[in-house]
Amino acid sequence: MAVDRTIRILIISCGILSLVSVIMCLYSISTANWYHSSIQRIGLFHTCNITISKTAKCEKNIYANSNQYSNDPVNGVYQLTYNKRFRGSGGLAIVAVIFQIASIILSIYASIIFLPNPSVTCWILPIIQFVVSLFMLATLSEASYGINMNGQSSSIYEAALVSTMASTIVASIAADRINKLST
User: Fold this and answer.
1) Strand pairing category for 77-83 and 46-49
2) Cα–Cα distance for residue pair 61/104, rounded to 1 Å
3) Hey, which residues does 129 pair with through a beta bridge?
4) Spatial separation of the C-alpha atoms in residues 131 and 39, rounded to whole Å
5) Any transmembrane segments, and where (predicted)?
6) In this structure, is the dihedral angle defined by the CA atoms of residues 49, 50, 51 and 55, taken in order, positive or negative?
């Protein structure tokens, strides 16, 4: 059975919103700008110290039971140790991107043909989108344990979450239309 034109437009819109969200997520995950101050920029995986020899040297994040820092201005060592809960935020963000890519592939497939047994399978895309939203929200929650999120990358990630939620709504509308047509 062919896909209705309105449903196809809704599913393609869902895929486009998901693609925009993935691009924003990948950009924000890869940059060290979730927290920005006059001496450092912090990302999910690394910290860049701006004041060390004006080179903006970046280092891998180190984790402990609570946030701590050591400053040795003579040797130019400034090390920040983050809360262990902050460690999980990077992994949660990566899992969200993987699920988001799966939803893009599913939306491309679903826009071409109906999935088998549409009364049940039509809800797969909105469920995946909802799970992605939960992972993204958990990323923001876990990241807030380690840093004050005032940087550009955290704002972009929050915009990606909004795009994912909009995609979830569009996918739910399409699933409801498919369900009504199949019954």
Assistant:
1) unpaired
2) 31
3) none
4) 36
5) 6-29, 92-117, 123-143, 155-175
6) positive
What phi and psi values does residue 18 have, to the nearest 5 degrees?
Answer: -65, -40
The answer to whether 110 touches 125, Cβ cutoff 8 Å, is yes
Task: Provide Rg for the chain, Cα atoms.
Answer: 20
Q: 3-state SS of the chain: helix, strand, coil percent to 5?
A: 60, 15, 20
How many angstroms separate the CA atoms of 150 and 133, rounded?
A: 21
Distance of CA 57 to the CA centre of its chain: 26
And the tokens for 65?
Answer: 């039971």
Start-to-end CA distance of the chain, whole Å, equals 14
Comparison of pLDDT for 4 and 92, the residue scoring more: 92
Domain annotation for the chain: domains and CATH numbers: 5-31+85-182 (1.20.120), 40-84 (no CATH)
* pTM of the entire predicted model: 0.83
How many residues belong to the chain?
183
| Cα–Cα dist 55/57, whole Å | 5
Contact of 29 with 90, CB cutoff 8 Å: yes
pLDDT in tens, 112-166: 776 677 777 788 999 999 999 999 999 999 888 777 888 899 999 999 999 999 9
